[in-house]
Specification:
By secondary structure, this protein is mostly helical. The protein contains seven helices and two strands, in the order αααββαααα. About 28% of the residues have low confidence.
Length: 176
């Protein structure tokens, strides 16, 4: 099977066989970062939306294409830029409670950056950059194989957002 990034392929194969999401993220994210992230802040999932027109939708070329539901489904697959665009292929209705105010993404990111600023590493050893790269590689591989489990994508997007914000906060701390 061809995937864009081989560095996360073994972890992805194990996840696809076991469906153990916690183990997948244990392999991708270093332990000290995972400890600061866990439990990840919960992001409210989008509610299903009713479609006003169940029939075919005219395409830009003038002909009818798919139904609104299929267009919406494809729009969710293509966009993929935020945690609210994930698709659950299992068809289960998942609801999440609101996150605790003290577990905000911003606070976790700042804490990771502050802890990391105490490390003395070179850029080649930077675990924040390596983690961000591995999360992006996992995301690309999941997109490539077409696996869109809502809970996996939400956790992936939250962890990725935290790590990217931590890199930004670390840069701010280094400039001060």
């Amino acid at each position: 099977m061809y995937v864009p990034h081989l560095d996360t392929f073994p972890e992805l194969v194990m996840y696809l066989h076991t469906k153990n999401q916690a183990e997948l993220f244990r392999k991708i994210i270093p332990e000290w970062i995972r400890d600061l992230i866990h439990p990840p802040p919960l992001v409210p999932l989008p509610a299903p939306q009713a479609h006003s027109r169940p029939g075919p939708v005219p395409s830009p070329s003038g002909g009818a294409t798919e139904s609104c539901g299929m267009i919406k489904f494809l729009g969710l697959l293509v966009s993929g830029s935020s945690s609210t665009t994930s698709v659950d292929t299992t068809g289960s209705a998942i609801s999440t409670p609101p996150s605790e105010p003290n577990r905000a993404v911003k606070n976790i990111s700042e804490e990771i950056a502050q802890v990391f600023s105490t490390f003395s590493l070179t850029e080649e050893e930077d675990p924040l950059f390596q983690t961000a790269a591995r999360l992006d590689a996992l995301r690309d591989n999941l997109c490539h194989i077409g696996y869109f489990n809502r809970t996996l994508w939400n956790e992936l997007d939250v962890c990725r957002d935290i790590v990217l914000r931590s890199i930004s906060w670390k840069a701010r701390l280094d400039m001060e």
